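From the methods appendix. Each design record in this collection lists the tokenized structure first, followed by the designed amino acid sequence. Records were kept in a plain field format so they could be parsed without special tools. The example shown here is representative of the layout used throughout.

RECORD:
FOLD TOKENS (196 positions):
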């Protein structure tokens, strides 16, 4: 895995000011800023800190190092330190993520894929509605052109209603049972214009 890490060991009583100028430098950088910066305090030595600066590649680290913003930051940082800072330049050979971190990354990827699938399904549904509307418009135009008197328009958005009969049974096994019959009602709007 390509990457570059710089660790700067600092001794200062003005760490808050140091963090402020680091933020300002990061904001002012021209695109070769670190991908991540971590400031840590040494628990065993008061006023000792390590700044861990990560870059995506050795090239981006070298560009950032050569920038005027980084040079200015180094000068300002040295003014805030009680002793000269020590810098370690490290090439990343390998990284390790815990099982939990890998699981979280996999879950995030699965959520992203599910979201994309939902978006695609919504697009497909919208396209289907558009195709049906275009077909209806073409059918209407065709009917208008041919006179359309002997053509029956069918609305496919709702299925024909089934004939419903309600039986108010007084027996204890099925009171108020509703029966459905596959036969359509005679007064159904779908029967209008049907040949006998």
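DESIGN:
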């Amino acid at each position: 895995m390509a990457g570059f890490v710089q660790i700067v060991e600092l001794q200062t009583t003005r760490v808050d000011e140091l963090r402020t100028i680091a933020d300002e430098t990061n904001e002012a950088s021209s695109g070769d800023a670190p991908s991540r910066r971590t400031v840590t305090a040494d628990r065993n030595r008061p006023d000792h800190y390590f700044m861990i600066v990560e870059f995506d590649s050795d090239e981006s680290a070298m560009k950032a190092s050569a920038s005027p913003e980084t040079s200015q930051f180094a000068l300002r940082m040295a003014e805030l330190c009680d002793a000269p800072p020590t810098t370690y330049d490290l090439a990343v050979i390998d990284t390790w993520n815990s099982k939990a971190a890998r699981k979280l990354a996999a879950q995030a990827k699965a959520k992203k894929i599910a979201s994309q699938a939902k978006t695609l399904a919504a697009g497909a549904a919208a396209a289907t509605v558009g195709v049906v509307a275009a077909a209806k418009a073409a059918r209407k135009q065709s009917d208008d052109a041919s006179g359309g008197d002997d053509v029956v328009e069918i609305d496919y958005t709702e299925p024909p209603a089934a004939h419903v009969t309600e039986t108010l049974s007084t027996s204890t096994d099925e009171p108020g049972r509703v029966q459905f019959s596959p036969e359509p009602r005679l007064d159904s709007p779908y029967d209008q214009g049907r040949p006998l």
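APPENDIX NOTE: The CA atoms of residues 40 and 50 lie 5 Å apart.
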